[in-house]
Amino acid sequence: MFSFQSKWRYLFMFLGIQLVVMALLSREGYQKRVTYFIRIFRKPDTTGLTGRNHTAGITAGDVYANLSHLAKAHSHGDGMPYCPKTSPFIGGPIHVSFPSRLTLAEVQRKNPLVVRGGRYRPPDCEARHRTAIVIPHRNREHHLKFLLYYLHPFLQRQQLNYGIYVVHQAGNYTFNRAKLMNVGFREAMREEDWDCLFFHDVDLIPEDDRNTYTCDSNPKHAAIAMDKFGYKLPYKMYFGGVSALSPLHYLKMNGFPNNYWGWGGEDDDIGVRVSLAGMYITRPSLKVGRYKMIKHMLDKGNDVNPKRFNMLAKTRQTWKLDGMNTVEYEIVSREYLPLYTNITVNIGTEAGLHSPPPTPAPPAKELADKPAAEVQSNDPADPPAEQKGQSEK
Questions:
Q1: Domain Galactosyltransferase C-terminal: where (predicted)?
Q2: Which residue has the higher pLDDT, 373 or 247?
């Protein structure tokens, strides 16, 4: 028989053990283990969602799952009610994969309500937002196919009135992403009074439709968490990948720079312009602003821009002199294709719209081997050698 004191001793020991167990369970690692074992005994998910968002630890779904009944809706007409402020079709995380046999014909078949030029509006309500998607492009048809496959249903789930513009740089001269986006802004606004423009890299796929493609009161950086950066923001002023500006924002900051030829620098220049124009960058949460990048090598004709750091250092002096107010280009063709509007454009070279590409300077050793009279400066402000000689006499 236990004594009365023994009973109390064992009771206190039992309560102490319970407190220790509760403390351990409160730790994140133990919570995950308990959640895992509880999940084993739950019924499997029957909502038709597939895939897994590994970082967030929640189920990711088919981007087309919520849209099957829309094709049966009545045609759009006058007197339509406004769409809800929060779309009922938004489902959260999206499973993203890249099937090898996907074709544009299959993308078109799965998006029957998208009309010529890549335009869409909800069939049963009046959209509250009108968004244009501008995609700078050259020789990336494989990536464009996957982006269109995910982007069309992604935008439809948000009940947007939208259009997709692919701005294709003609010729083989060095790629200029920011200048193409200036072209896209001007040409899209000529067609419709869009209230928001998303500037979208062709190789980035959104992974959560709670990341709404609408504008905020300040410029918005949507691609805050890419898989290539471990789903984290690489640095505070980063403004690359996918960004959104209203026409007012865009004009206030004089658009984007036109003189960044090659890879790198223009995103940071744009971020600085936002600040210089008296605005700031807004962002969704890390859980929502997630993107998967289609892996690829650096494109031919898009080599790293060696001048980018020097140019960035001068942004404060140049942003009002170079941008939307100085962009020059020529439209080569405009095609209203089933899934997007394709605008092929000549944006010229560093030397100008109609000037031939600048001749690269010869290597230093080659210059050293030449007689002094044959070596001339590449600086247009520098007088010819014979003029130098006259001025020295």
A1: 221-296
A2: 247
Cβ-in-10-Å burial (0-12, 13-18, 19+) of 154 comes to buried
Amino acid at 314: K
Q: Which of 17-31, 51-65, 254-268 has the lowest mean pLDDT?
A: 17-31
**CA 63 – CA 298 distance, rounded (Å):** 29
Ramachandran angles phi, psi of 344, nearest 5°: -90, 130
CA–CA dist 382, 377 (Å, integer): 7
Q: Which domains does the chain have, with CATH numbers?
A: 109-348 (3.90.550.10)
User: Look-up: residue for tokens 């140049």?
Assistant: 318
Tell me the pLDDT tens digit for each residue of 266-324: 989 999 999 999 999 999 999 999 999 998 655 666 677 788 888 889 999 999 999 99
Give per-residue pLDDT as tens, 164-204. Answer: 999 999 999 999 999 999 999 999 999 999 999 999 999 99
Rg (CA), the chain: 28
In sign, the C-alpha dihedral spanning 47, 50, 56, 58 is positive
Q: Distance between CA 166 and CA 169 in Å, rounded?
A: 10
Please tell me the least confidently modeled range out of 71-75, 233-237, 361-365: 361-365
Residues 6+ apart with CB under 8 A from 336: 116, 117
Question: Is there a contact between 85 and 128 (Cβ–Cβ < 8 Å)?
Answer: yes
| DSSP alpha helix (H) spans, the chain | 4-26, 28-40, 104-109, 141-157, 177-191, 247-252, 266-276, 308-312, 315-318, 364-369, 385-392
